[in-house]
Design brief:
alpha+beta; 2 helices
Length: 85
């Protein structure tokens, strides 16, 4: 899945490609790539990387995956289908 991603503390913006694994038992979200507006890969600093991992961990822990206000419609459909299993 591709989503906009920004770090408020550093004001860095880009597009993130995430790998989402969703089942009724767990949600797993991994950052595969983060690209700046010019198409160049962004390499987060250690501190920024820790904030990013914390945010992804929050999504996993609270099962935010599939939230209609956050996720693209195709992800919402997949999560709804997986949740019924």
């Amino acid at each position: 899945m591709t989503v906009p991603l920004s770090d408020i503390e550093t004001d860095i913006e880009g597009v993130a490609r995430l790998r989402c694994s969703v089942s009724s038992e767990h949600h797993k979200v991994e950052l595969e790539e983060w690209i700046d507006p010019s198409g160049q890969p962004l390499r987060p600093s250690k501190k920024m990387g820790e904030r990013l991992l914390s945010a992804l961990g929050f999504v996993e822990e609270h099962r935010v995956c599939g939230n209609q206000a956050i996720c693209p419609p195709d992800v919402v459909r997949i999560v709804e289908k997986q949740s019924r299993r």
